Amino acid sequence: MLRAFVTCARTGSVTRTATELGYSAASISDQIRQLEVHTRQPLFRRTPGGMNLTEAGRRMVPVAHDILSRMDLLCHCEAIPSRPRRRRDNRSAPLREVHTVRRTA
């Protein structure tokens, strides 16, 4: 949704946004509409000439860019080494059988 929003804000066109992101224009329109429902405010004025940001949309662009850049950073960071998993219960690990070896003289 956010990528569709910022791309549409930059291009001013649902069709160009769809082409750039590899989605259908209907899908881009739906994503933007869902974002507007979620934010409870119109983000674009739809005109025959394209999509124009509303004041709320202009305020949201830098926030959306920040969120997307942080998401990109998360997706590209190196894997964090995992710690050994701790058991959920308080029982210790099962004991191994101990085999004694007798020496023969």
Can you tell me about this structure?
The chain has 105 residues and is mainly α. It is 52% helix and 8% strand. It has four helices and two strands. The chain has helices spanning 2-11, 14-21, 25-39, 55-76, and strands at 44-47, 50-53. A two-stranded antiparallel ribbon has the order 1-2. Strand 1 and strand 2 form a beta hairpin. Helix 1 crosses helix 4 (55-76) and helix 2 packs across helix 3 (25-39). The radius of gyration is 27 Å and the shape is globular. The termini are far apart. The mean pLDDT is 84.
Order the strands across the largest sheet as they lie in space. Answer: 1-2
Low-confidence stretches: none
**How many DSSP-defined strands?**
2
Instruction: Report the sheet with the most strands, covering strand number, pairing sense and barrel closure.
Output: 2 strands, antiparallel
Please write the string of helix (H) and strand (E) elements. Answer: HHHEEH
Give the amount of beta strand, in percent. Answer: 5-15%
Give the helix/strand class.
mainly alpha
How far do the termini sit from each other? 79 Å
Average per-residue pLDDT, rounded, comes to 84
The coarse silhouette is: globular
Number of helices: 4
Helix content: 40-55%
Radius of gyration: 27 Å
